[in-house]
Design a protein that fits this description.
Length: 419
């Protein structure tokens, strides 16, 4: 009797194993699997839509000085950028060792310590870095007024650096007499740096925003045993806006940049930095009543060989959080949040299909009506304002085959419950 029971139990176990095996091999054709392996989401559907109803390139509006690095470049007719560092608060007294405080009557060994991104240097050198006095009462946001001060009567000093001289920490020596004259007169020291060279030159320097700001050092006496004084960048103007003044502690001005993209082309990156804004019209039954397994924005990249076409930029999609009351896409493109997912590594010189994954955006779109929150995204580069390179894509104005499209893979939504 016991043996018979064991045989029956073994037979039942084997039958169950065979049934489950058939389910794992062919979920769609087994009648047994319809009972033992009920569907958890239905069959995956794939659809490609002309869902983009508006696209455009907008300025990042991040403003002068908000970038984490300063670009010092001279790339022939293609790129010319200068670096401005403001020291609007200079010390006038110092305390010698074992003595009382006294007025500064001399300046010795003055230099600006620069934190250089050595991996991004362009050119074989030598690099000639010139310093100019760019103090002016002109409007703080007028780059033209500052650029005009890079002239012989404003010249401070120059230093020639070999490629091997550019270390992570590089000391750029400036005129002692200029620093002394500024602090004795109570004036502010605003230094403009320009690089020149026999070949293309480009140096990236960490800014105040990076946490590794440039610093001015000098000794208030020729005595080499005296500890140098250090001065951090500081801007007193505009006095009416301390936040903007903080950004203007140091910043990059663009004298000449690569040609901008045509109006009919979508662009991401560059100097000044640009973003791409895209708004979608997606059937409500897909957003509200399905589980989106994957959503891919299909873009056609246009080759841009103007500058360093084989270098790479990282692009991230961001969810636009601006409501329908914000009708200006430039303003809406500043009110965003990250869409979790991998960044997209792209070379400016590449061309052809480029895919951006957007599936995680659908959870946010499902939670809010499109009448309140437009279904829109922004594409931007990582480290916006750090690089003159920009990536370009075909827009809605291009031929049908090259326009942006949205490919969605979805399945019917099933409540999470035990049958």
């Amino acid at each position: 009797m016991r043996l018979s029971s064991l045989l029956l139990r073994s037979f039942a176990t084997a039958a169950l194993f065979i049934a489950v095996s058939s389910c794992s091999e062919n979920l769609d054709s087994s009648g047994v699997c319809a009972v033992l392996c009920p569907e958890v989401g239905g069959e995956v559907q794939n659809i490609t839509l002309d869902a983009v109803v508006f696209d455009t390139t907008v300025q990042a509006l991040s403003g002068l000085g908000t970038e984490p690095s300063l670009l010092l470049a001279s790339r022939g007719d293609t790129l010319d950028t200068r670096v401005i560092i403001r020291f609007d608060s200079l010390p006038t007294r110092f305390t010698p060792t074992g003595d009382s405080a006294q007025a500064i009557k001399s300046v010795d060994s003055a230099y600006i310590r620069l934190r250089v991104d050595t991996l991004s240097i362009k050119g074989d050198g030598p690099f000639t870095i010139e310093a100019y006095d760019v103090d002016t009462t002109a409007n703080d946001t007028s780059s033209a007024a500052v650029i005009a001060l890079f002239r012989p009567d404003r010249f401070i000093s120059s230093q020639v650096l070999a490629r091997t001289d550019l270390k992570d920490t590089t000391n750029y020596y400036i005129s002692n007499a200029t620093v002394l004259a500024k602090l004795q007169s109570g004036a502010q020291l605003r230094v403009g740096l320009r690089v020149t060279g026999a070949t293309s030159s480009q140096i990236r320097i960490n800014s105040v925003q990076s946490g590794l700001s440039p610093l001015l050092f000098f000794r208030a006496t020729p005595d080499t045993t005296t500890k140098p004084l250090s001065v951090a960048p500081f801007s007193r103007t505009p006095a009416s806006d301390p936040i903007v003044a903080g950004y203007l502690n140091d910043y990059t001005v663009v004298v000449k940049g690569p040609p901008p993209p045509p109006p009919s082309v979508l662009a991401v990156g560059g100097l000044p930095p640009r973003r791409t804004y895209l708004r979608f019209d997606i059937p409500s039954n897909i957003v509200d009543s399905t589980t989106v397994v994957r959503a891919t924005l299909l873009l056609n990249q246009i080759s841009n060989s103007a500058l360093d076409p084989t270098d790479s930029l990282l692009i991230v999609p961001q969810l636009v959080l601006a409501g329908t009351a914000v009708t200006d896409p430039t303003k809406a493109s500043q009110i965003v949040s990250d869409i979790p997912g991998d960044t997209l590594k792209v070379r400016p010189g590449n061309s052809g299909p480029t895919n951006v994954e957007l599936a995680r955006a659908f959870a946010s779109w499902r939670a809010v009506s499109p009448d309140s929150l437009p279904r829109a995204i922004v594409l931007k580069v990582v480290g916006e304002g750090n690089s003159p390179l920009d990536i370009r894509f075909s827009s809605m104005e291009d031929v049908s085959a090259l326009r942006p499209r949205l490919r969605i893979s979805y399945t019917s939504r099933v409540p999470l419950r035990i049958p």
